[in-house]
Structures are given as structure tokens and as C-alpha cells.
Design goal:
single chain; 377 residues; alpha/beta; Rossmann fold; transferase; Glyco_trans_1; Glycosyltransferase family 4 protein
Length: 377
């Protein structure tokens, strides 16, 4: 079996969860003996492949062009959507902020006539969503199999496509040899830790507001691609509670997870957030948004918050901070259930199902972390 994994070029220079997920899965697939090549486009392929595995539908134009190229080559198409429908949520979140930064004329219109500016923006934004989702739906319908990160994400894909799409839910994971409890003393000097890209989607501004309520220090690991957003976040840190760390090495990151009582991702959505899995594996308690698939991963282990409510985030942080730490039960749960080697086995089960002509019955597919999801193939 020859597999080509097609990922869009990351021009931003920031490491995102989808790239980490696929790079780790690729390494584990190769350990399982799968012949995997990686490319930015099916046009780059020099030899015939059996499966083109397309990564991500957020970039809808990339996904559509690659699924059409793969079909033209006669390859089976497997799709990792890495997607959650949150465009409507983003309309609630700074409806003009992005265009103000990129196109000064919007800022001028907002000052002259804010009502017209908002109405115009929302009309154009909804048109863009509609067109992008039409392309995404076509990609999902053309794929032979989708590999969402949870059954909840699969339901999002089904609604998008307007039909039931065959899928295997492939867990996100961690490197269990790296992320583990190394601090057994219980002395954790980072009360709250955020790890990730510092942007509006990650909701860092409300997280900073919530720790002002709690009067509790917050350490932020990660960089902001938009300096104006980080400047805005700095202005919200009225009590000087935030310590910015920038990028860290893997070893430094493990150390910070082991120093943290709580790891938080109060984002607009998470599917489910690699930092949460890594932090939990290192014994930290977790706080996560109630939008996305995190509940399918953590169940009763996590504290959940409404990302649009500073009070809700603060209350979830307070509850998580009161739990014993290190949380050995959560660490073992994550390290046993969510690893990249297991994710690769789930992925390989999907490949084999596609190559067998989709003729096998549902119970022959290894669903893995989501056993209750076996009805979908």
C-alpha cells in the first residue's frame, strides 16, 4: 500500500495542531510499515499511489483542488478534515477586527457609519462562508473515507455534506515517552498555564480577563502572529499577572507542564487541543471550552467553560485549581488511550477498509478510542 499525505504549505511559520497531528501520525505509520510520502500537492507525486490522504478542509480551495487531482490520478481519497463549524461563532467575536487590521478602508467606514460597516461586513462574510462551505461539502462527498478526530466532528461533517459520510474517528495523541509526570512532589509553581498560538480564536484576551478576577498568575507559552492582538492582551493585564514565555523546546514544555496545576484552552473551539492532552499526561488538571470535541476525550476529567463568558472561564479555573495535583488518574487515562501509535493504527484501519473496496462490515474496523462509534461504517 502506497500512501501520499497531502498537506498545504504552512506559510505562516507557526506550528499548528493539525501539522503536529499529521507529522506524528506519519512517523507512527512508517513504524507500522506503511509506505508514506508527503507532498504539498498531488501534482508533485512522481509515482503512482494507492491512497491520497488530504489534510484539512479549512483551506477549502486547497482541499478541493487536491481531491480532484487525486481522483484524476485514480487514487482512493482519505480525508482528515480537522474542522469544526465555528464561522457563526466568529461573527460574535470582533466582527470587524480582522478587516480593520488588513484593510484600513473598513476602519474608516466604521468610524463614519458603524451600522453600515457592520451590515456590509456581515453580508460579505456570510457570502464567503457559504461559498467556502459548498467547496468543503463537495470535498467530503468525494472522499472515500473521512478520518475526523471524534464522532462529534464527524457529525459536523455530515451536516456540512448533507449526507452520512463513512468515517473512522481517529484520536489525537501524545508522545507518551516524552509527556509524563516527572514532578512527583506536588509542588507546582505555575497556577495556570496556556500553551498555543496567541490569537483571537484561542480567546486569550478573555482568559487574561478571567485571571484578573481570580488574582492568579498565568503563564502563556506561544507567540502571537498579530502584534496588535498581543498589545490588546497586554492592556488587559491590569494586575501584571501574565508572564509571556514565547516558544519553548519540547524539554522546556514538559518541564512547564509538570510545574502547572491547571492547563487551559478556553478557545472558541477545540478538537480537542493537543496542549490539553500533553498537560494532562504530565499530571495537570485541565480547563477547556465547551465548544468542540474535548468532552468526547475528557468526559468528567475536565472542567468546561463557555468561551464567551469571562465569569464562566474564571469559575472553571477555580474548580480545576481546587483538585488534587498531580492528577495521576487523568495522566494514566491519557497516556493509555491517546497516543500517536494508537492514532496510526486507527488510520491504518481506515486505509485497509478503503483498499478492501469498502466491502467489510462495521465490526471489522478498529474504532479504537471511540468504541461507541462503531455504527458509522
Amino acid at each position: 500500500m502506497r500512501v501520499a499525505i497531502l498537506m498545504p504549505t504552512n506559510h505562516e511559520g507557526h506550528v499548528r495542531g493539525g501539522h503536529v497531528q499529521m507529522n506524528q501520525t506519519i512517523a507512527s505509520l512508517r513504524d507500522l510499515g506503511v509506505d508514506v510520502t508527503v507532498a504539498n500537492s498531488a501534482e508533485q507525486l512522481e509515482e503512482r499511489v494507492d491512497i491520497c490522504h488530504i489534510v484539512g478542509i479549512q483551506d477549502d480551495q486547497f482541499a478541493l483542488s487536491e481531491v480532484l487531482r487525486a481522483k484524476h490520478l485514480g487514487a482512493k481519497v482519505v480525508l482528515s478534515p480537522i474542522w469544526w463549524d465555528f464561522d457563526k461563532l466568529m461573527l460574535q467575536e470582533g466582527w470587524l477586527s480582522t478587516l480593520e487590521r488588513r484593510q484600513p478602508r473598513w476602519s474608516t467606514l466604521a468610524r463614519i457609519n458603524p451600522t453600515m460597516a457592520r451590515a456590509t461586513f456581515m453580508l460579505l462574510y456570510r457570502m464567503r462562508i457559504y461559498q467556502a462551505n459548498r467547496r468543503r461539502a463537495l470535498v467530503c462527498r468525494k472522499a472515500d473515507l473521512t478520518l475526523p478526530n471524534s464522532p462529534g466532528e464527524a457529525e459536523q461533517i455530515n451536516r456540512l455534506a448533507g449526507k452520512n459520510i463513512p468515517y473512522v474517528a481517529v484520536r489525537n495523541g501524545i508522545d507518551e515517552s516524552l509527556f509524563r509526570i516527572t514532578n512527583l512532589t506536588g509542588q507546582r509553581d505555575i497556577p495556570i498555564l496556556f500553551v498555543g498560538l496567541v490569537d483571537r480564536t484561542k480567546n486569550v484576551h478573555r482568559l487574561i480577563q478571567s485571571v484578573q478576577q481570580l488574582d492568579t498568575p498565568l503563564v502563556i507559552v506561544g507567540q502571537a502572529p498579530d502584534r496588535s492582538y498581543q498589545t490588546y492582551c497586554n492592556a488587559l493585564d491590569e494586575k501584571g499577572l501574565v508572564e509571556w514565555k514565547g516558544k519553548l523546546t519540547h524539554q522546556e514544555l514538559v518541564s512547564h507542564y509538570n510545574r502547572a496545576r491547571v492547563v487551559v484552552l478556553s478557545s472558541m473551539r477545540e478538537t480537542p487541543g493537543l496542549a490539553l492532552l500533553e498537560g494532562a499526561a504530565c499530571g495537570a488538571n485541565v480547563v477547556v471550552t465547551n465548544i468542540g470535541s474535548a468532552m468526547e476525550y475528557f468526559g468528567d476529567f475536565a472542567e468546561y467553560c463557555n468561551p464567551f463568558s469571562v465569569d464562566s472561564i474564571a469559575q472553571a479555573l477555580r474548580r480545576a485549581s481546587s483538585k488534587p495535583c498531580p492528577n495521576h488518574e487523568l495522566s494514566e487515562y491519557v497516556r493509555n488511550k491517546y497516543t500517536w501509535s494508537l492514532a496510526a493504527r486507527d488510520t491504518l484501519a481506515g486505509y485497509e477498509w478503503v483498499m478492501e473496496g469498502r466491502s467489510t462490515v462495521v465490526n471489522s474496523i478498529r474504532i479504537g478510542a471511540f468504541q461507541h462509534d462503531a455504527r458509522h461504517i
